[in-house]
Write a structure and sequence with these properties.
mainly alpha
């Protein structure tokens, strides 16, 4: 994968290849801990720290780590930083640590972290790898915090643990249960996809399809006929 600037890596993680809303990785913590916005922030920032530091160290050691044992080496490096984060959270934020429970140690096997180590950090420089980890981590944090915010607001009538009057008496509790996580995640992914689709259309980034005689495609049944320059040219004739 081509190495880019810090801004490009941050944009990539936050928008273009958001690990939760685009690549759809790390679904276990995404669905399990997002019963509140605070849980989302805690889980997201913990993962961001591990992502950034593990990417940095894997990139620094990429010429030393033998290719045949790179995956075990990645896991050892990631587990080291997860252990540090786990101990720091237990000491300084015990309430949040209790809420997140087993999902902090399970960061070790989070496919977002292993995926970035394999796909990016092992092939690129330390600075770019570090910002790639920060970008992916912040993208993950923003996504799960938004999911937690919506679930907490609709399902509990609260925001960041603060009740909004007597709203909790009228809220559907299904949104703080497992099905609610799927509902909210699917809705956010659909809305994001629609927004990006509209932006791309306005910018003209999607090029029209052009068929040739050799394609053997029947224009009457083709789904791209509305934008096909070959089809429109035939009609004009």
């Amino acid at each position: 994968m081509k190495e880019g600037s810090a801004a490009e890596r941050l944009y990539n993680g936050l928008i273009k290849e958001n690990p939760t809303l685009v690549i759809v990785l790390g679904m276990c913590p995404t669905l399990a801990v997002t019963t509140s916005a605070m849980n989302g922030i805690g889980m997201g920032l913990s993962t961001t720290v591990v992502l950034a530091l593990s990417n940095l160290f894997i990139s620094l050691l990429r010429n030393i780590i033998p290719d045949k044992i790179r995956i075990p080496a990645f896991i050892v490096i990631i587990a080291t930083f997860v252990t540090m984060v786990d101990m720091l959270m237990e000491g300084f934020t015990p309430a949040l640590y209790t809420q997140l429970g087993i999902y902090i140690p399970l960061i070790v096997v989070n496919c977002i972290i292993l995926g970035r180590a394999e796909a990016y950090a092992y092939s690129n420089g330390p600075a770019s790898s570090f910002f790639d980890g920060v970008g992916m981590g912040l993208g993950f944090t923003c996504a799960i915090t938004l999911i937690g915010f919506i679930r907490e607001l609709i399902g509990s009538g609260a925001v960041f643990g603060m009740p909004l009057g007597n709203l909790s008496d009228f809220t559907p509790t299904i949104f703080v249960m497992a099905p609610g996580a799927f509902f909210v995640l699917a809705t956010i992914i659909a809305v994001r996809a629609k927004i990006i689709d509209n932006i791309e259309k306005k910018k003209g980034e999607r090029l029209p399809v052009k068929h040739t005689d050799e394609d053997g495609i029947d224009c009457a049944t083709c789904s791209a006929r509305a934008t096909c320059s070959g089809h429109m040219g035939t009609e004009q004739q």
